[in-house]
Protein 1
Amino acid sequence: MEKQIFNELQELKNLTLLGAKKALTMSDCALLTGLSKSHLYKKVMNKEIPYYKSDGGKLTYFDKSEVEEWCLKRRVKATDELETEAATYCVTKGKKGGKNV
């Protein structure tokens, strides 16, 4: 029981520190995104996620706001949004007197 409480307190500490950081390590970025470190390494190697290298090139860092933006860049519209867009398109197309395809 004590070990579980200790682990939960440690996790809270890590999350609190993560909230205050601007520059993230690979471990921080994994915690923030929910991706494994190996998956992040693949993203870095394929240049699929914005990152920074240390002077020696051995350490990889991430800008927290850039990672959050990256996580949110592929928004999928909800069904009601798509239905509204489709209805608007149909009404607009009909008003222009366009031919149905």
Protein 2
Amino acid sequence: MDFKDLAQMRRSHRKFTEEPVSKEDIKLILRSALMSPTSKGQRNWKFVVVEDKEKIAALSTAKDLGGQFLASSAVCIAVLGDEAENDCWIEDGSIAAISMQYQAEDLGLGSCWAQMRARGLKDGTPADVAIRSILSLPENISCLCILGFGHKADERKPQNEDKLKWENVEWKA
């Protein structure tokens, strides 16, 4: 599949089968992140791979809304950074995250992004606090997102070309 088709086929999947994701596939997914471009070539993002079902379940409750689907993931990857090390950690982590999602799609796997930065619980606890506790991370590390990966339990139609928002594009010649 060429990239044009891959971009059209990649959709968020929030339902996964019980089948585990192979170590080889996880390594390819991480490889795509480690090759992704970064500001000034710093490459100082951090990734934590989680396969333990109890930890995955705990991560799914790190914020009140939108992370519950993580509980059915075969594997999760937390995308992390240290703002003191890199003022572009959010941008660099975002590029790495979407690179992982495209690689997963190319492998026939499903994925979905759970936003964690600037999210939390109704009691005011930031998601970062819960995530640092679950993953035993130091205080200086922040979580941008947690990506859930697994074998797709549902089928999604490709992006509809007719619904592309070309009106949001302005050409300057």
Protein 3
Amino acid sequence: MQKQQGSVVIALIGLLSLAAIFGLYWGYQKYQSHQHMQQQHVQQLISEQQQIVLAQRAAHGHLPDEIKIQPIERQALVERTPIQTQPLSARKEFTCDGREHCSQMRSYEEAVFFNQYCPNTKMDGDQDGIPCEQQFKRGF
């Protein structure tokens, strides 16, 4: 009786193993089919985009692939008082002491002073005259 039960258990384990292998194979085939359909869809979209570009070029003549847009003068859009118009006494509260980074500044005014008057500062990455924009939430 025990021998028969052992054989049945082994047979069930074998069947479950085969079912699991078949399930994995079936799932992988579905995955491959889905991937193939997505690739076809992307290729169709690329082809449609190329047709649109060709139609626009036919209607408007040859257009450059890339148009360079000049950045807007952000400095003109930001309302702030230039440090030069501040009284001399206000400018004297800061001195160049070797600090170079925004994380070392305690205020926006201090960052402006260091950016304008101290060498080797690294506080105006986009060179628009507004230092530490993210830290002090300026120029946005």
